[in-house]
Amino acid sequence: xxxxxxxxxxxxxxxxxIFCKESEENVMTKVSxxxxxxxxxxxxxxxxxxxxxxxxxxxxxxxSSNNSIFVVIGSNDSIVNCIENESVSPVLSFSSxxxxxxxxxxxxxxxxxxxxxxxxxxxxxxxxxxASKKQSxxxxxxxxxxKSPYYQSQISHVxxxxxxxxxxxITFSSSSSSSSKNAPVRISGKVRDRFxxxxxxxxxxxxxxxxxxxxxxxxxxxxxxxxxxSAYWFEMTEHIIPNHIxxxxxxxxxxxxxxxxxxxxxxxxxxxxxxxxxxxxxxxQNGVRNYCGHDLPEGLQKNQKLWKLLLTPTTKEEEHDxxxxxxxxxxxxxMTQEDFDICAKAALDVFAFGQKVALExxxxxxxTKYEMGKDEETGTIMMIDEMHTPDSSxxxxxHSYEERISRGMEPExxxxxxxxLWFRDNCDxxxxxxxxxxxxxxxxxxxxxxxxxxxxITWKDFEFDVEAEGHIGEAxxxxx
Length: 480
Hints:
By secondary structure, this protein is α+β, with helices and mostly antiparallel strands. Helix content is 38%, strand content 22%. The strands form five sheets. Strands 13, 14, 17, 18, 19, 20 and 21 form a seven-stranded antiparallel sheet that branches. The chain has a five-stranded mixed sheet with strand order 1-5-4-2-3, sandwiched between helices. Strands 6-7-8-12-11 form a five-stranded antiparallel sheet. Keywords: ATP-binding, Ligase, Nucleotide-binding, Purine biosynthesis.
């Protein structure tokens, strides 16, 4: 392909004139369709390459303008020379061998790039198209990578050998140099276990998969994914707000500073979505128009982007969490105004930074929750718990978002709900005393998806740590 261009400044809608054989029109029609659908180039016409010389000159001169682009297919030097000599418009020349069914989008992109020189609208469409293709490639690469035999064998080995991290087999040596004379006491949560090390805490993220208020399965490497994803984001955002991380001595372990947590979860949302009772979409569906202090306009649609980032805090209460406005947080005594202002700004700034980084990885950071607290020694407000993990955050795939929304479809994501759905379909998970064992292939697929999300989010290859759970205690002791 050869290109001859002339610099233009007009912003009129581009006009594309394609010279081709009749046998090539079907393929070029697909190019025309791609130009319209992907790049907003709709003024496309066809001319025959067998046009008589007498007619060619008048066709070129009458069609020539600052916003015209000529496309010539095949070895037609006379047409190309005529356009170059008689027209101010650029000309693209493709060989006949380039006119293939699978090359239509590539040809359309090249034509659109030339059109973009005279049309900001087309230029914007080209930029979005290129970004979308890049995002799609990133996602496909991560998916393919984690489906490799090596990854599958690592996951299967841990599952078959029952090497998942349960939290039940962590032991500490009596020769520990820890400040505590006795072995640290384990305080177990749904997914994380906590060990008091005196002036610090050890947080162990297990492979437990919870749902329906009970444990459903042990998912290989899930804990490592969550712990290392948080560690990645904590390091990436420490220029915005300090965090509680002291060290990460093991894939499943973070040693952290002791902090007094605020009794508020700082939920940041960029889209109108969600299915839980505290979500913005569920509340909006139920007629709520003032949500956490934000006035919501009529006509919002599910999964659409909000006009700005919204901080929608919830309380952390025994019975159930509830959405709460900033004014009520202060008036009800949950936090002081000064502390809330610091946390609110940090939450919005960290989320905006996370969105930017995620988009570079082909992902949309849709919403997330943050927890913050005060360092017990210094009183410094810092980020605690976890950050931007697949469990605390919602991610969508960026490359397909706009197209799917325009078709009324749900945004594409790396689904992790299929295991919950299996239990719902095969038992009564809320009332049965004993739950059936989840199929191995489902648990292993869930593990692969967690690992895949880790690689998508961090752009790092996952390093499988298959050490027995007993080594966790040693790692904690070495770190202190």
